[in-house]
Specification:
Layout lengths: L2 H14 L7 E8 L5 E8 L5 H17 L7 E8 L11 E5 L10
Helix pairs in contact: 1-2
Length: 107
């Protein structure tokens, strides 16, 4: 894994620290070959309430602002509703995955 990808993952995880809401199942990203465009994929259990979607958007803004020298031109956000236990197809840079083990009570 390149230094650029490790840096991006760290930036994203810090930005998401206070922005993950209960319906979010996973968040993953990919960086294009130019290093200037990011795909940002969020899997959710259902449609996010407006406030939860705004929390994720705040994190995306923080990622954009923290990326070195403003090098990112665009972050494309993709929200996929896939209730548990539907499979998720994460992008290569996984920054968050909710524990969905059968033995864990999340109620």
């Amino acid at each position: 894994m390149t230094t650029e990808i490790l840096q991006l993952r760290a930036i994203a995880q810090m930005a998401l620290t206070t922005h993950i809401t209960p319906r979010v199942r996973s968040i993953s990203m990919s960086l294009d070959s130019s290093g200037r465009e990011i795909e940002f994929r969020v899997y959710t259990d259902g449609t996010l309430p407006e406030s939860a979607a705004e929390a994720i958007s705040c994190a995306v803004t923080e990622i954009h602002a923290a990326y070195p020298l403003g090098e990112i031109l665009r972050i494309n956000e993709e929200f996929i509703v896939a209730p548990e236990p539907e499979p998720m197809h994460q992008l290569p840079i996984v920054v968050y995955v909710r524990c969905e083990d059968a033995w864990v009570d999340r109620t």
